[in-house]
Specification:
Pnp Oxidase, Chain A
Length: 171
């Protein structure tokens, strides 16, 4: 059994990286907040991935949160190496300019967190990029009055492992 699959079904994210010339997207299931003050998040990226190289070079990344509506694009971005193809172009995704970082945002995602790397320890076969959130955004109307994602308006996408995904419903 892959032990992490027992606890790993938070929202899948698309981590974008780049410097204005080079850019990439990595579909990542391992993303989490790690501090609220200061606002810090962490993403685990395989140490040999092109995204790891770009994030190490630029010291920044964007966590883009996709809805279930683009699940095929999420899967596709996880199946191609970024140094072999421009995933934005190949999979019909739109890069958008961020407010605080050079890494592109993904327009098709409903929320984004622009981050600057503050730590990047090697954790086995992954680099854990811990980023300070410099700016965040969400499509209008998708937050509840309690500042949570309104799952009655957006189908969040959760990775169960392998090729299995699920969405949430409010209970």
């Amino acid at each position: 059994m892959k032990d992490y699959r027992l606890i790993n079904y938070g929202p899948v994210v698309m981590v974008s990286s780049g410097d204005g010339k080079k850019k990439n997207i990595a579909s990542i299931a391992w993303a989490t907040p790690v501090s609220s003050d200061p606002p810090l998040v962490a993403v685990a990226v395989a140490k040999g991935h092109y995204s790891t190289k770009l994030i190490q070079e630029t010291k920044e990344f964007v966590i883009n949160v996709p809805s279930a509506d683009i699940v095929q694009k999420v899967k596709d971005c996880g199946s191609v190496h970024g140094d072999e193809a421009d995933k934005f172009e190949k999979f019909g995704l739109t890069p958008a300019k961020g407010k605080k970082v050079r890494a592109p945002l993904i327009k098709e995602c409903y929320a984004q967190l622009e981050c600057r790397v503050v730590q990047a320890p090697l954790t086995g076969d992954h680099v854990l990029f811990i980023g300070e959130v410099l700016s965040s955004s969400i499509n209008e109307g998708l937050l509840t009055s309690n500042d949570t994602v309104d799952v009655s308006k957006v189908r969040t996408l959760h990775h169960l492992g392998g090729d299995e995904f699920a969405t949430l419903r409010k209970i």
